[in-house]
Amino acid sequence: MRWIEVTVRTNTAGADMISEQLMRAGAKGTAIADRHDAVRDMEGPLKWDMLDQSVVDAMDEDVLVRGYLPDDVTSAERLEALRTALLGLTAEHIGFDAGPLTLSVDNVAEEDWAENWKQYYKPFRVGKRLVVKPVWEAFEQGPGDVVIEIDPGMAFGNGTHETTSMCLSLLEELLRPGDTVLDVGTGSGILALAAAKLGAGRVAAVDLDPVAVAVARENIARNGAADIVEIREGDLLAGVSAKAGLVVANIIADAVILLADAARARLTPGGLFLCSGIIREREQDVLCSLTSAGFSIERVEYKGEWVAVVARG
């Protein structure tokens, strides 16, 4: 199958917004190559040696956001819609400068695009103990490190997106040993894996996308967590009867709103609902739906244009 590689030039401030536009255009996932983030990670207090300086030196000064669209009868319409959306992202309209916002396209074979993004995906730390390691990268584990080995494939969740990293950090803080955890919209399985490795007694993970379910199962098996994590295909929590001390959902605002009542019903008394994938413009809609479902809002976190909420049932 042929694919169209779509690259949009932007800056750090605009990267997640452009990623969202690519997803709306039909990309199954996106890759963000940000030289400034890489330099910061190499020079910051949690300096990592795994990112080769030559890779950083070769990176573009602009932030490059890439996504892959199927090269079929829908591609022209999708690209035109994306170009139109980019034209509307002026500083006057969005409140900040998002950089050049130029778009380029290239045709690639499936085996090529599946490998192209890997050169930018290196081991990195999230929170105090979690380390996310791509399966193709070497990493020397230190004392106290909790390593998640991941190959996201075509599923969302390599840990670098703001929503996923917020969820990982909050999981590390909130999870109690032995908790039962429900992971809704598991994607690559990264949050389910983090829960298992942080001491959850049982994790039930669900996703509507059969590709994501297959990817998640591979990652669970790769990390030796199949005895703790159960992956199933399903729509939100439909058909899930288990009670949990923690429900986590890194999805989108509309899905969080739909999920609120069901999440409240599945929680044990005093349990927590950790949700993200919420763009700032939808924060109040989500908070209203959670309070209407009987939750009390305990914490709201922000990263870039994204919001994560911790609510108690």
Describe the structure.
The protein has helices at residues 15-25, 35-43, 53-58, 75-87, 91-94, 110-116, 162-174, 190-197, 210-222, 253-266, 283-292, and strands spanning 2-10, 30-33, 63-70, 103-109, 124-126, 130-134, 146-150, 180-184, 202-207, 229-233, 244-250, 267-279, 296-303, 306-312. By secondary structure, it is α/β, with parallel strands linked by helices. The strands form 3 sheets. The protein has a 7-stranded mixed β-sheet with strand order 10-9-8-11-12-14-13, sandwiched between helices. It has a 4-stranded antiparallel β-sheet with strand order 2-3-1-4. A 3-stranded mixed β-sheet has the order 5-6-7. Helix 8 (190-197) links the parallel strand 8 and strand 9 (202-207). Helix 1 (15-25) runs antiparallel to helix 4. The chain is globular and about 50 Å long. The N and C termini lie far apart (47 Å). 41% of the residues are buried. The model is unreliable at 39-52 (pLDDT under 50).
